[in-house]
């Protein structure tokens, strides 16, 4: 049985910024990127342990064919997408 996949406000804002940036140079590529990211996130509803454990009770999943990783948390009822990061960006600190 599949779980619903939800996006936090922060993850949604990040996705929106990424897509607006991509659309400035190529709207078709931005739409393809959106589809790839959203499709990969939706897979987590069926396979919530697909990604390896990460920090603070989250898991991470590479969005194949893109430089992005999804960070998510599984609960009993759903899968929450909590972050979307470009693989070259790391918090320092």
Q: Estimate percent helicity.
A: 25-40%
Instruction: Provide the structure class.
Output: alpha+beta
Sheet with the most strands, sense and barrel status: 4 strands, mixed
Strands of the widest sheet, in order across it, are 1-4-3-2
Uncertain spans: none
Radius of gyration: 13 Å
What's the layout of helices and strands?
Blueprint: E1 5-7, H1 9-25, H2 27-46, E2 59-62, E3 68-74, E4 79-86
Parallel strand pairs: 1-4
Antiparallel strand pairs: 2-3, 3-4
Task: Considering the chains and any ligands shown, give keywords for the structure.
4-stranded mixed β-sheet; YaeB-like fold; single chain; 40% helix; 93 residues; 24% strand; alpha+beta; 2 helices
Give a quick summary of the entry.
With 93 residues, the chain is an alpha+beta fold. It has helices at 9-25, 27-46; strands at 5-7, 59-62, 68-74, 79-86.
Explain this structure.
By secondary structure, the protein is an alpha+beta fold. It has a single domain, classed as YaeB-like fold (2-Layer Sandwich), CATH 3.30.2310.20. The protein is about 40% helix and about 25% strand. The chain contains two helices and four strands. It has a four-stranded mixed beta sheet. Helix 1 packs antiparallel against helix 2. The chain is globular, with a radius of gyration of 13 Å.
């Amino acid at each position: 049985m599949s779980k619903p996949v939800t996006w936090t406000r922060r993850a949604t804002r990040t996705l929106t910024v990424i897509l607006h940036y991509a659309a400035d140079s190529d709207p078709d590529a931005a739409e393809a990127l959106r589809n790839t990211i959203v499709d990969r996130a939706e897979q987590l509803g069926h396979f919530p342990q697909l990604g390896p454990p990460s920090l603070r009770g989250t898991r991470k999943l590479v969005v194949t064919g893109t430089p992005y990783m999804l960070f998510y948390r599984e609960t009993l009822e759903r899968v929450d997408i909590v972050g979307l990061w470009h693989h070259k960006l790391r918090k320092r600190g």
